[in-house]
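FYI - complex with F0G, inputs then prediction.
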Amino acid sequence: MVSWKGIIERYRDFLPVSDKTPVVTLHEGNTPLIPSRDLSEEIGLEVYLKYEGLNPTGSFKDRGMTMAISKAKEKGCTVVMCASTGNTSASAAAYAARGGSMKCVVLIPEGNIALGKLAQAMIHQAKVIAVQGNFDEALTLVKEITRDYPVELVNSLNPYRIEGQKTSAFEICDVLEDAPEFHAIPVGNAGNITAYWKGYKEYKQRQRSQSLPRMLGFQAAGAAPIVLGKIVERPETIATAIRIGNPASWKAAEAARDESSGRIDAVTDEEILQAYQRLAAASGVFVEPASAASVAGILKLHQDGYFKKFKGARLVCTLTGHGLKDPDIAIKNVKAPVSLKPDIKEILKEIGL
Ligand code: F0G
């Protein structure tokens, strides 16, 4: 058996790397594509969940970060920087640590990052700065600093990030032996929808697949600039990962939507939370709220009759991050455990035995 050595080794022919590139990897990628019986039955399609929360730092960002950090190291960069709603910072911090002799600086929106992500950036020894503002303001600062100083930007504006992230589309085509008819994905800064679309197109061009999916992107209703067609100055949503009002890859996301005859729609926080709980309870898959936006979105399109003509078609939902990233949200949305004395009678009574 050949062991998995990460996305760069697996898809080297599709990536801008050479023998000289020092590969910084945590063996990311190769995430499961899980069929969801529950969603398939309801929607009448074959629904699969691409569980990106099972990457080394718990989100899809690792695919892009192995590329961005390897290329930064190849160039001899010693400082990398990003703005982040949490997952990018966790991934950048881990890969910079893995790369050795690399400093990582992250700007996060104060008070709006999930606990697990903050813990990750800190334990990997990144310099964490909480900015008294939102993600968009933090990104503007990072762009300015990385333009003027010898510091490498590792947000998805860095083209190597997109290159790495496109490999998830390759994995899906490898498993399904073609592209699915639909691909649903949450949209925040819009790098990932851009990356998947690039991946699907390249695989088809190189004759590894025969078709292209329709791309279905979903933003949170309180942070839906692409849906509204204008910048949202004060984005708000419980899905803090996608609390973004001015996405960096806005144009590329629109291109993915239009070229694929897809859609970019909004889902409310309530719909996101329902999908979040449903995934955990009915599919056994624990994701963070932003990830559930893709499932909330397809349920909404189904209710609108969007899939009527496509019975039995294949649909893949990207679940971008692990549920353990945001334990506070999970605990707030379930009943607290019952507290009982260590007495067998009381416990049996509570169980109903
Ligand atoms: N889902 C999760 C869990 C994310 O962390 C992000 C983005 C997205 C979806 C949206 O992906 O930005 O490529 O459209 N998180 C970034 C971060 C912004 O800083 O971690 P996108």
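The chain has a mean pLDDT of 97. The chain is about 45% helix and 15% strand.
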